[in-house]
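User: I'll paste a sequence; please echo it back and then give the predicted structure.

Assistant: Echoing your sequence first, then the prediction.
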Amino acid sequence: MTAAGPTTSSHRRRTDRAVGRLVLGRLLLLPLLLAGVTLAMFALAQAAPFDPVAAALGERALTMDGPTLQAMRERMGETSALQQWAAWWGNALTGDLGASTILRRPVATVLAERLPWTLGLMAVALLLAVALGVLLGAWTGTRPGAVVDRAVGAGLISLQAAPPFWLGLVAIWLFAVALGWLPTGGATSLSAVGVHPLDVLRHAVLPVSVLALSQLPWYALVVRDATRDALAGPAVRGAWARGIPRRQVLWSHAVRPALLPLVTVLGVRLPELITGAVLVEVVFSWPGIASAIVESALRLDFALLAAVTVLSTVIVVLGNLAADLLYRLVDPRVGERDG
């Protein structure tokens, strides 16, 4: 008993050091990654065949005379992508992200207003997809070869092949047009004064459900396959031989180990969640930042596009870091191997 205390303390210190190295490494990598992504973005923008002056001025370019526009093009042509990149970061680090040419507002204001809508949509859809994925995956994985396993598996694979925008259009046709149960889009009713939680919740049902369904197959299938593999392993056979109750065997030796690959898939699928949110927001006219990405790309709103690119990169890196930390929480042996 006396040796257990120092051993446990030493193990905890090794785990803490491994987690600390992981967090520090990712946080040190983040500025380098942001620098590389934004530099590539400025280089591609300079090489792209579009008018940089029109992109920077937006509709104001229509009211300016030709010689003035030509002089501005010549000055921009003399500025390298590296100089533009350095100037943008110099302003961004002071809080000045520029102004959106399509929305005619400061980019920081646009992000502050739209970002909560996108994060709320993504968070609720992700939680719903993971919860349903664990339930469906565990249910079918513990019944390999059964009718329900084959039926649910075929449905999940079919759903996996359906793009989010198609699911959104089908959902609008069925639940909003044909049945009239839910609104076709937006986050609030046109006749509503202010933002009411119940009204927002009613408008959020379809976009949240569609985004969750687009992510569901990945989580459900990985849990199902991992549960099947665990059931065929020696741990489960040994548990059966010892007479351990069925429910305990299925949870402790089959379903619970299947959560490890689920955590890995969570980190890998985060960029796809952002892409899905872009499509869902456009289909349902959801007032989030993802829909602004499409507008900024189509109408060359470079200030907004640059800020959204940086923001998306930060979300992906921090999301992958959270997935790695969660993996170590579910399986502490990972920290032991790293230490």
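The longest strand covers residues 99-100. The mean pLDDT is 78.
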